[in-house]
Amino acid sequence: MVLGLRSAIKSDVGRRRTSNQDSGATTSRLLIVADGMGGHAHGEIASATTVSAFTEMEARLPEDLADIDLAAELFSALEDATERLSRRAGEDPETRGMGTTVVSLVLTGDQFAMAHIGDSRIYRLRDGEFLQLTHDHTMVQQLVDQGQITLEEAAHHPRRSVLMRALSTDHSPDPDLDRIDLLEGDRFLLCSDGVTAVLDDTVIADELASGTPDTVVERLVDLANAGGGPDNITAIVADVVDDAEPQAQPMRTAGAADGIAASG
After folding, report:
1. Is beta strand 176-181 parallel, antiparallel or unpaired with respect to 111-117?
2. CA–CA separation, 160 vs 158, rounded Å?
3. What global pTM score does this model have?
4. Which of 76, 143, 167, 218 could cross-link 148 (Cys pair, CB 3.0–4.6 Å)?
């Protein structure tokens, strides 16, 4: 069996922001969401530049990834993005300190190669079991890990968005890199915290349980906005399918990445 992806992506500015600093992209084997930060348009630059580094990396890879060290390739894409942001900060001092979260998956055979920095998340729904595959790099998650606060307290903590790790101009990337085994029928969600800050796991799991990827991303964005839309909202939903005759899928971008795609 040859496994493939059927995916959809949607990004929205939300109800309280004036610009969308999230970016995302999908291809036939790459999924990525980045949530930029830095004020003004700087977060948009950070997330869109990072997504561009990843889509260019994926385009350079051979069709057969069996002999490719994807952990090294993902780390290299993160380093490339960091270097691009650092160069930009050198040219424009106002952009110093800009950064972004990253969650990314690359399909290879019956596995995903994963890269993760920050508090954007990846979830999997398999045979009714809903599982968060990433671990937030936040101060609040660190407090939970240390037993100082509960998950319930973390959900409403005033500093729940303070990141301990992000891709930025200030330092080399420090990602979580992993491999994820796949089964036909798996459904994955990659999303920014504009989804998870509003919708709890029960709601997200319920929404993932039915519909096509296109309808699910629409519903998630609508529900996050209905819950107040305090931040930019980006979601990718991808189904793992039997792809007996794989076909190249056009790259789809969303959020701030649309500007780079249009100008590329």
Report:
1. antiparallel
2. 6
3. 0.94
4. 143
